[in-house]
Amino acid sequence: MSIIVLILQCSKIIIEFSLRSSSPYKYLQVVCNANKLAELVKKKKSKQNWLDYYQLKYSRNSAKRPFMKTGFLGLCGEKVDAIDYHISEIEKLSKEIAEERERVKKDPKSIMPAAFVSFKSRWAAAVCAQTQQSRNPTLWLTEWAPEPRDVYWQNLAIPYVSLAVRRLIMAVAFFFLTFFFMIPIASVQALASIEGLEKAAPFLKSLIEINFIKSVIQGFLPGIVLKLFLIFLPTILMIMSKFEGFTSLSSLERRSATRYYLFNLVNVFLGSIIAGSALDQLNTFIKQSANEIPETIGVAVPMRATFFITYIMVDGWAGIAAEILMLKPLIFYHLKNFFLVKTEKDREEAMDPGSLGFNTGEPRIQLYFLLGLVYATVTPALLPFIIVFFGLAYVVFRHQIINVYNQEYESAAAFWPDVHGRIITALVISQVALIGLLSTKGSAYSTPFLIALAVLTIWFYRFCKGRYEPAFVRNPLQEAMMKDTLERAREPNLNLKPYLHNAYIHPVFKEDDDDEEEFNIKLENESVIVPTKRQSRRNTPVPSRISGASTPSLPEAVRKHSEP
Q1: Which H helix or E strand runs over 350?
Q2: What's this model's pTM, rounded to 2 decimal places?
Q3: Distance from C-alpha of 528 to C-alpha of 539, rounded to nearest angstrom
Q4: What value does the mean pLDDT take over residues 164-184?
Q5: CA distance 74 to 66
C-alpha cells in the first residue's frame, strides 16, 4: 500500500508548511492535545454503561425503581434514583464534551508542534524522514510514523524538549529499581531454604525434616518465591516507558522488553548464582576487581544448576501449560463477570483474549536462551529441560498466535535488532562464564583462545549491526523509487484520500464511523490466509486497546474507495 506517513516535530510546523507550498506532501493531519477530551469521553461511556445496566434491571422488574448512593463506590452519600441520576450526568458530560471539542478545535494552545504527513510518493517520504530539514537540528524533526493502530495518542501531547529529561529520570529510577530489588529477592530466597527456615523459625524444624516437605522446599520453593516477586514488574516497567513519552505501542513494548531482560539478567541470573545474603551479593560485584569476576561466575554457575532446573520447570513449563489453558484470562474473565460486567458489551470486552505480550514473553524466552548457552558447556544436564521448554513454547505460541490472540499492531520487525543484540549478549556471557570455569580447573592455556572468541563475537555483532540494522530503520531510496514506479504503472487511479481522512485522527474526533464499519464488513467477508476455527479478519486488524480504532491496512480495503 502506498501510504507513507511521518510524524513531524518542530516549533513552527504550521508556518513552515504554509511557506513550503511546493512540498510534495499529499495529506497533513495536525496533532491536537485532546487528552482531557478523551477522559471526558471515557467517563461518558462508563456512565452510559451504568445507565444501560440500570435500565435493563428496571425492565426486568418495573415495579421497583433502582436506587443508588452517589458517594465513594456507591457505599455512602445521597440516595438517588439511579436512572435519572445517570441520565442527568450523561447530559452534563455531553455538554462538557461539546465545549471541550470546540475549544480543542479553536484554541491555538491546543495545537501541538507535531503532525502526521502523507507524501505523494515513497521516495519523497523517505527523503523527508531520513534527512535533516534545517540548519538547526532541533527546529524540524522528522521520523517514520507508526501505523494508525500503533499510535499511543496520550504521549503525542508531551513537549519534545521534556523527553530527554523524562528518559533520564526513568533511567535513574530503573537503575535503583534493578539493584535495590535484589535485596528483598535475595533475603526471601535465603529464607526459602532449609537452613534459612530453621534459623528464622526453629519451631518448624520437625516439620521441615519430613522428606516430602524437605524436597518441596529444596526443589520448588525458591523458584516460586522468585516468580511471585516478578508478577508486578512488567506493569511497573510499562508505566515507566509511558512516562518516557514514546508515541507508539510497539516502542513502549520494546523499551519494556529491554528493561525486563536487563532486570532478569541482573536479579534472576547474576543475583541467583552468587551465593550469600543480599548485601554480600552487592559487595561481591562492587569490591571485586574486574579480573576476579569471571572466576567468581565460573565457580558459582555450576553450583546453581539445580536452582535453574527447578526455575525452568516452575516458570517455563508451568507457564507454557498455563498459556495453553489460558488460566490468567479465564480467572480475570470470571472476576470481571462477577464484579464489573453489567451489559453484553462488558461481557464481550471481558472475553477479549487481547494480544501477545511481547514485553513479557520475549524477554522470558531470551532468558532461557541465555541459560541454555551458559550451561551447554558447564552443566549439560540442564539442556534437556531447555529443549523441552522451547519445543513446547513453539507449539503452544504458534497455536495461540494463529487461533487465539489478536494482532494489535504491525511494527515491521522492529523487535529483531533488539533480539539479535540480546542473543549476542548471551553468547558473550556464556564465553565469560566458560573462561572463569576453566581458570578454576587450571586450564590457563585455553584462556587466550576464549578471549579471542569473545572479541570475535563482539566484532560479529558490530558487523551485523552496521550491515543489516539499517534495513530495519531506513527505507532505501532505490527501493522506494522502484515501488513508486510499479504502483503508477499498475494502479494509476489509486486514491487514498478516504483512508487518509480518518487514519490519523484522534479517536475522540471520529464522529462518523460508517466508512470504517463498511471496511470491517468487507474484510470479514474475505477468506483468511490461515484457516482457523476462529472467525478472523485477514491479519486480524482488531481495534487497539489504546486508541479504540480499527484501521484497515489491506490494499483491497483502500482500493474499494479508489476513484475511477
Answers
A1: helix 344-351
A2: 0.79
A3: 8
A4: 87
A5: 13
